[in-house]
Amino acid sequence: MTDTMASRTNFDTDLSVRIRAVETIPLHIPFGSPFQIATARESSREFLEALIVRVHTDQGVFGIGETQAWRRQGSAELLPNLMHSIHGQFEPLLVGRSPFDVNAIMQDLNATLYNSLYAQAAIGDALYDLIGKFLNVPVHVLLGGKSRDRVRVGAVLSMKPTVEELVESAQAFYERGFRHFGLKIGIDPAADLRNARALRETFGDGIVLRVDANASMNFDAAANLLRKLEPFDIDVAEQPIAIWDVDGLAALSQAVAMPIMADESVSTDHSLLDIIKRRAATVVQTKTAKNGGIHYIKRLWNLAEAAGMRIYPGNHPSTSIATSAVAHMCAASPIPVMEGVFAVGMSGALADDIAENSIRPIDGEVPVPDGPGLGVTLDEDKLAKYRIEV
Question: Is the pTM of this model over 0.70?
Answer without folding.
Answer: yes
